[in-house]
Amino acid sequence: MHLRLLPLTLALGLLSFGCGGGCPSGLALDADGRCAAPTTMDGSVDAGETDSASDTLADPCALCGGGTPLCLDNACVACREDDVCTGNDRCEPVGDTCVACLGDGGDTCPTATPACDTAFHCVECAASADCAEPAASACNVATHLCEGCARAGDCSHLAATPACDVASGTCVECASTADCGGAEGCDPSTHACVVFTPMSVEACEPCVRDLECSSGKVCVAMTYDDPRTAAADPVAVGQRCLWRLDAVGAGAPNGSCTNVEGTSSGMARSVDGVSATVCTLTVSTCEAHADWRVDCLTEDAAGDARCGLPGVNDSICRSGHLCSFFCETNDDCLVSAFGALCERSMSPPSCYP
Hints:
Strand content: 15-25%
Distance between the termini: 154 Å
Number of strands: 22
Structural class: alpha+beta
């Protein structure tokens, strides 16, 4: 009776396994009762009994191809080295992807976009150091385009033109005397550092440093505002040596600018940073003063243009074809030398005769 129960128990066990304990599709129980790929008579895996799903589970790189043809650390990637990428692209080592550039000095970006930004794109500039032109020395980090300078730091990478002329947005040799050496001054007309001779320049003459002016004077950057226009729109007219109000001696103001004809007192800061009250010109320029009573040939716009500083309308050709300049009071005119007075009946008033 006991011998007959054994086959029945075995049959029930096999029936129970077949009903709920089988292996996934493509796998079978091995001799140890574990699910495995079926084997042939020689013990090799029977490929005919496996499917694509089990292949993928066994080899995660089986799906590599197309844009990610390589397998690295069980992951499909685009590249391992540059030579896998197309054209001049580089292999970015963190993401193992082909990019336009890496910014490591080994890029081959186009001439027009030689720099590499943080997103691995070839751009015109990634920093101001990539901008080599004085007229476009600053890198706009938003657009990656080189633009004109707005501050001194925008030109510091250009050895020949380390200063910024903010008005023009151009890098220059000097924007002020502070940009030059001790024996030099900045010529505002050229923005170049020039050597000067101490104590050699008189009142109303061009200068580059305070020390260049003769005794009692400082070098001041002057402006001129055309009285024939309603707007306050002064323009720079260069640096000139001007008397200090506190200067004493023959020809000096001695405390009053009426002692220096054609001037009135005003506060100024010299090119070397000295704050002083100086005797300056109210509504004229030094060039207009120098051309006083010069023959201007014709009493018209062409005649006016022959007087004073070109392009700033600081003079007028009056009757007799003589150059004159504008004024507010008689003190603005050269009274003792020529007996000139400010003729206020004219618009704007000018010195006459």
